[in-house]
Design goal:
The chain has 320 residues and is mainly β. It is built from five helices and 20 strands.
Length: 320
């Protein structure tokens, strides 16, 4: 392989290497100094990242191992919905109840985890970096006393969250990073506000699932609404209703996890069974994947060589 690489133009070697998974590239850094320099070069890392975005999108599922009760993540093929790898969450020196660990989201193969602090983690390279606490005051739009509820979405340069004004009125709060302005979108009328609302992304648009209970609180129904234009209340449109889901106990909520191909929705059933829901046929197809409904989370993910150590470096605290 090394002799062949010496005989090939560097551009061709790069075109071959960008097709390889991260685990192989990490091994190949030891082949020779020139390959180490190539694979760790920022231009190559960017090429590999762009290549993976086009052909190698995956899903990252956080759940809990039934035997050890440790929290684990599984990478799932976006094309086949088959689990390819399962490994534990990184040792973050938490020292507290791990049920509070929350997957905020993933961008360029880096995953943000949060409990009482935030950690950036690259599951492919096993690198972690504790995010220092900001000394800046909490940013809220002028004129509002706002509480952010849960994680947000990032679409086309705009981050959005569900937020409460004065702990009563629920709305979508969006921050346009290019114009550096906040936008408020009131929720559609005639929707249930019982708590547990979730934000999703469908075709680069915001979707909210509104849960509501029926039949003496033993079943859950979800109304799925799509926002066509941020900031415009009248641009909400109702897509479909999904359910009912039988709620076995008060720990964990069955329901939607996110969207897949052709607007089908990934859902979790009351027993932790993952399934696909087709809104056009209203058919539910079980997958060969199970999880702990109490801690289940699903985000879009791709493997990357992007390092969490680049940029401003800092030392971890002594208590880690």
């Amino acid at each position: 392989m090394l002799m062949m690489a010496k005989e090939l133009p560097e551009d061709l070697v790069i075109q071959i290497l960008v097709w390889l998974p991260v685990v192989s590239l990490l091994r190949f850094k030891s082949v020779c100094k020139s390959w180490y320099a190539l694979i760790t070069n920022q231009n190559f890392i960017t090429k590999h990242l762009l290549h993976n975005k086009n052909i190698n999108t995956q899903l990252l599922l956080k759940t809990r191992d039934k035997t050890t009760e440790d929290y684990v993540v599984s990478t799932i093929s976006y094309e086949t919905l088959q689990v390819s790898l399962t490994h534990p969450l990184p040792p973050l020196c938490l020292g507290i109840d791990k049920i509070s660990i929350f997957v905020v989201g993933s961008c360029n193969g880096l995953v943000c985890l949060h409990d009482y602090r935030s950690v950036i983690w690259n599951p492919a390279t096993k690198e972690t970096k504790i995010v220092p606490k900001s000394n800046l005051p909490r940013i809220v739009p002028a004129g509002y006393l706002t509480r952010i509820d849960g994680s947000g979405t990032y679409i086309n340069g705009m981050t959005s969250w569900l937020a409460y004004e004065n702990d009563c009125e629920l709305f979508v709060l969006s921050f346009d990073m290019s114009d550096e302005v906040f936008l408020k979108t009131p929720l559609p009328d005639n929707t249930y506000r019982e708590g547990g609302e979730e934000l999703f992304v469908l075709n680069e648009l915001i979707v909210i699932a509104f849960p509501h209970e029926q039949y003496l609180y033993s079943e859950l129904i979800y109304d799925i609404w799509l926002l066509l234009k941020v900031g415009i209340k009248d641009s909400w449109t109702r897509l479909f209703t999904i359910g009912p889901f039988i709620q076995i106990n008060d720990i964990g909520w069955p329901g939607p996890l996110g969207f897949w191909k052709n607007d089908t929705m990934l859902i979790v059933k009351s027993d932790g069974q993952l399934a696909l829901y087709d809104p056009s046929s209203k058919q539910i197809t079980n997958l060969q994947i199970h999880g702990d409904i109490m801690c289940l989370q699903l985000v879009t993910y791709m493997e990357t060589l992007v390092s969490v150590k680049r940029g401003n470096e800092f030392e971890e605290q002594d208590n880690c």
